[in-house]
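Friendly challenge for the regulars: who can give me the structure tokens for this chain first? No prize, just bragging rights.
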Amino acid sequence: MEYEAVIGLETHVQLKTHSKMWCGCANEFGALPNTNVCPVCLGLPGVLPVANEEALRLTALTGYLLNCEIPRFAKFDRKNYFYPDAPKNYQITQYDKPSTQHGFVDFEFQGGIARVRITRAHLEEDVGKNFHFDRNSGVDFNRAGVPLLEIVSEPDITSSDMAYTYLNALKDILIYGGISDCDMEKGMVRCDVNVSVRPKGQKELGAKIEIKNMNSFSGVRRALDYEIPRQIEEVTRGNKLRQETRRWDDVSGITETMRSKEQAHDYRYFPEPDLMPFTPDDAWLAAVKARAVELPLARKQRFINTYQLPTSDAQTFIDDVALGDYFEGVVRESKNPKAVANWVINNLRAKLTESQTALADVKFKPAQLLELIALVEEKTISTSIAQTVFADMFATGESPRGIVEAKGLAQVTDTSAIEKFADEAIAANPKSVADYRAGKVAALNALKGQVMKLSKGKANPNLAGEILERKLKA
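First reply, four minutes later:
Bragging rights claimed.
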């Protein structure tokens, strides 16, 4: 019997706010343990939470970016559990009335566009972080109370590769929208996996296994590559799988049982009595929606369709938003988008990396790049000379025409001058001449290279080729 996997993901994302969810403590990574804390985030008796409005805005903005509904009524709930990293012994979260619900993420996968539906994206608070040493353990509560968005997908994912691709697409959307920096090394994104297997074609779901301790998207993929075959092997042997929570051991490459899975009632959810329900009005939602940005996939498709760029160029501008914005600022005034893309990707980006210069600090103006392209297209300078001119532009900010005139770099189109260089190249390279006359067409390029060398790169290469061919066939 053939089996298939059914996968849903719960992605926890720290929001990009200056302060925590319920208090004024700093939301920052790397501070000394237990220094960004106060009575509120430590859960001391008598304190009251106050909601971080920017966190509410970022949650609604995420809803717009993920094509979600934004309900006009949302509330917070207490989720009770007793772990060392939960200072209050409960977590303030959203249960049955979340801030966003019913959306989807479209992304490129296996040559097409895949869609994973979003059940909800609800707002809650993060917990502290446990540290385990040889003889004792400790808890750092700096992270406790940091605004956390839990994005829950429908079980629409069917493979480890699809899960990996979806997570990266989701991360790109969140970074584009300014929702989170999504730095996994700083714990800003964490993921729990729900996976089951069933006979292919069966509608009923199998026993859901939750996998925790996902420190990277590649870890999610590796865990699924282990867990799916494990479950298939179990049911093939006639064993019945039971709902449970397992942990992923990234070193050993296996999942291990942690506990039988709690049901929702085990958490004893009830409405948070210290926080009013959230009822956004039209003006508030309109202000949030105005912050929505073009999504990476839409941007990529637009670059391909509008500017006829190859997929690789469009992807480069998706991966580097600032570079893509720079390209668009230049290309609007150009009739040759591909030429602009080539100069921005191959030359400008290389110089920025080489000199460790920020794009905002580039000395030449965008219009000067168009001037350089025009000099090549009108054959005033060759492509190779243009490389030299660009290097000077980048270093000095001078105009390309000024550089060409000052250094005498204009292309030689004088037929008599090029004929002289051609005669010298033919006389100095008898083997290449013989090879060409023997039918080796590529030998012409070697002779053309000699002409360019003799002219110090100034000869018109097309004219040089025509003159060489004429002379060699004479």
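The longest strand covers residues 112-125. The chain has a mean pLDDT of 92. Your move, everyone else.
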